[in-house]
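Fibrinogen beta chain
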Amino acid sequence: MKMMKTPLLLLVFLCVAWAQDVLEYDDYDLDNKISPKPNKTTDGAAVDARGHRPLDRARESYTSRYAPPPISGGSRYRGRPTAAPVGGPKKQEKVPQPESGGCTHASEEMGVLCPTGCELKTTLTKQEKNVKLVIDELKPELDELSQSSNRIFDYVNGMSNSLRERQRLVTDNNQVVVQFTDQVEENHAYIKEVVDTVFPSNIRVLEGVLNKIRQKIQKLETAIQAQREKCKDPCMTKCPIPVVSGKECEDIYRRGGTESQMYMVQPDPLYPPYKAFCDQTTQNGGWLLIQNRLDGSVDFGRRWDEYRRGFGNIAFPASKRHCEIPGEYWLGNERISQLTKTGPTEVLIEMEDWEGTKVHAKYSRFTVQSETSNFVMAVEGYSGNAGNCFLEGSPELFGENRTMTIHNGMMFSTYDRDNDNWNPGDPSKQCAREDGGGWWYNRCHSANPNGRYYIGGPYTKQMAKHGTDDGVVWMNWKGSWYSLKAISMKIKPFFASR
Ligand SMILES: *[C@@H]1O[C@H](CO)[C@@H](O)[C@H](O)[C@H]1NC(C)=O
Ligand SMILES: *[C@@H]1O[C@H](CO)[C@@H](O)[C@H](O)[C@H]1NC(C)=O
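Predicted structure tokens:
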């Protein structure tokens, strides 16, 4: 019995334990990725320009600078019985009767009995001979009879022995059946008890668990649907890799790779080569694309690790031979840092509005430090017609408000790594959470190239997830509430043109 109960109980508890495990497995909340921002009402001063986070003079100060039981023990048969010894046939010895007779009188005075008596005797003796013959004839028959009766005796004897044996077996079997029935009854009682008491409560628990799992599945299905939506466009495309490769795009250009397309670059022989898009036509070519937005096909609201390694699609094929169409991507802070630290590097930021107007900003020096310093960015030497966001901040703002929007000298921030200049250490005040992407946020931005992609251009506070200007913004050209159609950042080793 115990051997029965234990597995049953184990099974029940295992089921419950398993179900609870499942519950604990995915205790995450899809919606907690970005904490909601309290509904702040801006004070009277209706400045259309956003980008900055005004000081609360009472508390803050700003310093410019980041898953039927067998019956054991015996067979139904007992050992075979040894045949009962059959007693030898007892032959009945026939005792020959002695012949007697006489013709003498009892008393001599009476003389001899009549002579005819003696004749009688003779006759009788003769007859006796005949009788003897008949008897002799009958004797074998008698013997035969006697023998066959012995055989019958033996047979009957055997029959009754086997009958007794059978009776004994029947009795034994009855005992076994009774024993078995008892066990079955006991088991039945136990199972009934379990079914009546333990199961209902466990079933209730399991039903609860099932419900929760259903809810989770629904949630997951919603999430999967959302992901499908996102992946409607191909995530990665295999492109043929050109024969020409080099340290970076300028090196490739000099080796004859003068067409704008995807190439393999290897700035440092100690590190493996990687794919990058080279713009070999704009401004004499040699430009390596480090950032690109053009259709909103890639989500830029990503974690620190992703920004460090890089993400997105390098390029798509326009023909079978080349990957000439750049995709949306971020090259990766590690690579950007390595490239800019190799030597003097310039950066070209090109952008386009929804009417097709294009402007650009260029910095003759652009450096991104290593991860140990949170990828601090520095620029100098502005030229162009888009406006000097990196060095000057938004011209729509004044004083501290403008200083808060300068990007030069800022560390890199993502929603999971706050290095910005807006109340450092306060998790409710993080630029990267409110403004949609990873960037060199100050408090917070005048330029937000990695922001959310809004189709059409103008967008409003109500459309923004946190009420902030989280679009693909370049304030110095289109202000806070216009999200650009396209923007890209390209770098190139700086050298004096002759
Ligand atoms: C925020 O406040 C404005 C009015 O100041 C209101 O129109 C809007 O619905 C509020 N939003 C939320 C999310 O409470
Ligand atoms: C900074 O901005 C806040 C609100 O946006 C405004 O009240 C304040 O006057 C501004 N400061 C300066 C120096 O313009």
